[in-house]
Amino acid sequence: MKPGAGLRAYALLYLLFLYAPILLLPVFAFNSGTIIAFPLKGFTTQWFTQMFENASLRQALGNSLTIAVSSSIFATCLGIFAARASTRFDFPGKGPVMGLIMLPLVLPEIIVSISLLVVLLSLGVQLTVLTVILGHTLICMPYATVILSTAFNSLDRSLEEAAYDLGETRWSAFRLVILPLVMPGIISSLLMSFTISLDEFIIAFFLAGNEPTLPTYIYSQLRFPKQIPMIMALGTMLVVLSVILLTVAEYFRRRGIAKTGATDSGGFL
C-alpha cells in the first residue's frame, strides 16, 4: 500500500458522505416520480415549472431576498467600522469588544434566537421581516468583520500617510485611497453575508412571525409528500446559487490579496 493511501481513502469517504445528499438533489429534482426513491421513473422539468408558479413560494423568496440584501449591507457596513478600528487603532477594551463582536460565531443559534425573541417581545416589537434582518445582521457581522479585517491588515499604511501628506483629510483619504483598495474584501463580505442570510433557518423560524422566509417555507412543506419533488427542485436552485455566490466571493478575495501583495492564508473554497 502506498504511503498516505489510507488517508486519501478516508478523505474520499468523508467527502462522499458530506456531499452525496447534495448531489442527489438534482437527480430527484428531474425525476418524474413523486416518491424520493430508486429506481427513477423518468426525466421531467415539471417540478421546476410548479416551483415558479407557486405564489406562496414567490412570497417567501421575496422575503428572503429582502432580508439577505438588507442584512448583508448592514453587516458589511458595521464590519467595516469594526475591522478599521481593530486593525488601525489601539483603545481600552479592544480585546473584549472584538470578542463580543465575534461571540455569535461560537454561540448556538438556538440560544441567540430565543434571546432575541425574548428581548423583542418584552419591548413590544412585532415580529416581521425587520426583526429577521436584525437577527441576520447580528450573525453575519462576525463573518464580515473577519473578511474585512484581512483586507485592512493587508493595506500598506504608507499609502494612507502619503495621502495625508498630499493634503487629504482623514475622510477623503479613507474614501479615495483605502476603500478602493479594500473593495474586493467588501464585495466578498457582501456575498458571504448574503449567502449566510439566504440559507439561515433557526433565527428566521423564531423571528419571522407570519412572514415566512424561504427556509421556513421549505420546512413547512416537508409535511406534504406531494410537495417533496418541488422542494428538491428548489434545493437544487439554492445549491447552485450558493456555489456561484461563494465562488464569486472567493474570486474577489483572492483578487484583493493579489492587488495588495499580501499572503494568502486560506479562504472559503
Automatic annotation (TrEMBL):
Q: Which residues form the ABC transmembrane type-1 domain?
A: 61-249
Q: Which SUPFAM superfamilies match?
A: MetI-like
- The answer to whether the entry has keyword Cell membrane is yes
Q: Which GO terms describe its cellular component?
A: plasma membrane
The residue ranges crossing the membrane are 12-40, 60-85, 97-123, 129-155, 176-208, 228-249
Q: Which organism is it from?
A: Paracoccus limosus
Protein family (similarity comment): Belongs to the binding-protein-dependent transport system permease family. CysTW subfamily.
Q: Is Coiled coil one of the keywords?
A: no
Tell where it localizes.
Answer: Cell membrane
This protein's membrane topology, according to the annotation, is:
Multi-pass membrane protein
Pfam families listed in its UniProt record: BPD_transp_1 (PF00528)
| BP terms from Gene Ontology | transmembrane transport
Recorded hits in InterPro entries, A to Z, give: Bact_Polyamine_Transport, MetI-like, MetI-like_sf
The organism's superkingdom is given as Bacteria
- The identity of this protein, by name, is ABC transporter permease subunit
Keywords recorded for this protein, A-Z: Cell membrane, Membrane, Transmembrane, Transmembrane helix, Transport
